[in-house]
Every structure is written in structure tokens, then in C-alpha cells.
Design a protein that fits this description.
Elements: H1 2-26, E1 30-33, E2 36-39, H2 44-47, H3 56-65, H4 79-90, H5 116-131, H6 135-142, H7 171-178
Antiparallel strand pairs: 1-2
Helix pairs in contact: 5-6
């Protein structure tokens, strides 16, 4: 009877070692690029798309222009490669169609915004549309869809003040039913 117990104990210790190895393997380094943490187990091409304002095409262009292999794992990047990526994103030398801010309203030039700068510029654009009372600005004010979608059967949940819309009986129907049968 002692032998089966020893085998069970031996099996349990092997399971513990395997679980500890899995925990060590599952620990993923976070690499900080342009103020955002990117999981180190991803490839560069995929990981750069986690940054707001960087699309797949822009990420691919970064890899090609900086001569970095797009299949390389992010945690294997050197400090110099990370520096190359950040410099390129701050000052991209790419065709205009890859930029996300073409013919800027205020400055008139082409630029590429990332992160909080992109959010801020979007908010400024919406405020400007509301101020000049453009159609898109009016739709933003009303909480309606801006790009021409139909509203007959959708966008009811987008109403802020009205709350949810459901089937309700009108007040007149309730008052008529609640009146007692009176004398004639």
C-alpha cells in the first residue's frame, strides 16, 4: 500500500512543477512604446496596432522604413529599435494616403496623430461642426447617427434623455379604463 501512495505524491509534485513552469512562461513582459504598454509576446506588426492611431498599413510601413522584421517578437527589440520606431512615428516620411490627418483644417498640412492627440483633435472637429451648425454637427447635438444610417428601427438606445423606448400604454387609455361606471 505504501508504493501507490508514493506514486501519487510523486505525480502531484510533477504537476506542481508543470504549473510553476506554465506560470513562468505565461509572465509576459510589457514593452513601453510611445507612452503605451504593449504585450511583449506579440509580433511587431500586430503589437504596433495596439497604439491608437496606428493602422495595419501604417504598422507595416513602420517596419519596412525602419528595416525591422515585422515577425520579430516585441520583447526581443533592442533600445535602439524602439527609439527608431518612436522617432519614425513622431515624424513619418510616408505617402499622404497613409496619414490620418490630411489637409488639416487649421494649418492645411498633412500630419499623422496618435494617442490622446488624435482624441483631442477629433473633439475639436466635432465642436467646430456644432458651432457652425453644419448638418453633421446638428446630428451630433441630437445624438443621432451622423453618416446617413436609417433610424426607423435602430439608434433608439442612443437617445440620452429619453432612456429606453418600449411599448407603453398611453395616459388616456389608462384614465378611460380607471373611470368607474357612473350614473347617467
Amino acid at each position: 500500500m505504501n508504493k501507490p501512495q508514493k506514486q501519487e505524491q510523486f505525480g502531484k509534485s510533477e504537476d506542481k512543477n508543470k504549473s510553476q513552469e506554465k506560470m513562468l512562461i505565461s509572465e509576459v513582459k510589457l514593452i513601453r512604446v510611445l507612452g503605451k504598454d504593449i504585450p511583449g509576446d506579440k509580433k511587431i506588426l500586430v503589437g504596433l496596432t495596439n497604439l491608437k492611431g496606428i493602422s495595419w498599413a501604417f504598422s507595416n510601413a513602420i517596419c519596412k522604413r525602419t528595416n525591422i522584421n515585422p515577425d520579430k517578437i516585441i520583447e526581443n527589440l533592442s533600445e535602439e529599435e524602439i527609439r527608431k520606431i518612436t522617432e519614425f512615428v513622431k515624424n513619418p516620411r510616408l505617402p499622404v494616403f497613409l496619414m490620418n490627418r490630411r489637409k488639416d483644417y487649421h494649418q492645411g498640412n498633412d500630419k499623422h496623430l496618435i494617442g490622446s492627440d488624435l482624441d483631442l483633435q477629433k473633439d475639436f472637429d466635432i465642436k467646430r461642426l456644432k458651432k457652425i451648425k453644419a448638418y453633421k454637427g446638428i446630428r451630433h447635438m441630437q445624438g443621432q447617427p451622423v453618416r446617413g444610417q436609417r433610424t426607423k428601427s435602430h439608434f433608439r438606445s442612443n437617445r440620452k434623455k429619453g432612456g429606453s423606448v418600449g411599448v407603453t400604454k398611453s395616459k388616456q387609455a389608462k384614465t378611460v379604463q380607471s373611470k368607474p361606471a357612473g350614473k347617467k
